[in-house]
Amino acid sequence: MADEIPWERLFEEALRVRLRAHVPYSRFPVGAAVLYADGSVVAGCNVENATYGLTVCAERNAFAAGVAQGRQKPVAVAVVVDTPEPCPPCGMCRQVMAEFAGPDIPVRSRTLNGGEARYSLGELLPHAFTGAFL
């Protein structure tokens, strides 16, 4: 399945939306794009708030936008960051991904210089808390 994923399209969308990030405090813009089974791509950027706890990451914004658009079955996630090394999604984002996708969903992080890291959600969050526990 990973060979069929249009990764360049996902990274282009994540890079594009990253430019819209609202990051006056951290100055750390992040863009994310989620590919859904129907072929649609939903992007999100991080949005900070003066009360830092209300800040929302790019990945969570992309998934929330997908929910708002009625999208189902995410199949891949791409993240773009401006760091020397690719960085994975934070723990909160991993948990949100686990709400909507299984452990096999591929997650890739790319830097502006083209460095890339590849993961599965199961590698990033091996013991996810899911609705199965409720």
TrEMBL record:
One of its GO terms (molecular function) is cytidine deaminase activity. The keyword Zinc applies. It catalyses: 2'-deoxycytidine + H2O + H(+) = 2'-deoxyuridine + NH4(+); cytidine + H2O + H(+) = uridine + NH4(+). PROSITE patterns: CYT_DCMP_DEAMINASES_2 (PS51747). Keywords: Hydrolase, Metal-binding, Zinc. InterPro entries: CMP_dCMP_dom (IPR002125), Cyt/Deoxycyt_deaminase (IPR050202), Cyt_deam_tetra (IPR006262), Cytidine_deaminase-like (IPR016193). Its EC number is 3.5.4.5. Its cofactor is Zn(2+). Residues 5-132 form the CMP/dCMP-type deaminase domain. This enzyme scavenges exogenous and endogenous cytidine and 2'-deoxycytidine for UMP synthesis. Belongs to the cytidine and deoxycytidylate deaminase family. This is Cytidine deaminase. The lineage of its organism: Bacteria, Pseudomonadati, Myxococcota, Myxococcia, Myxococcales.
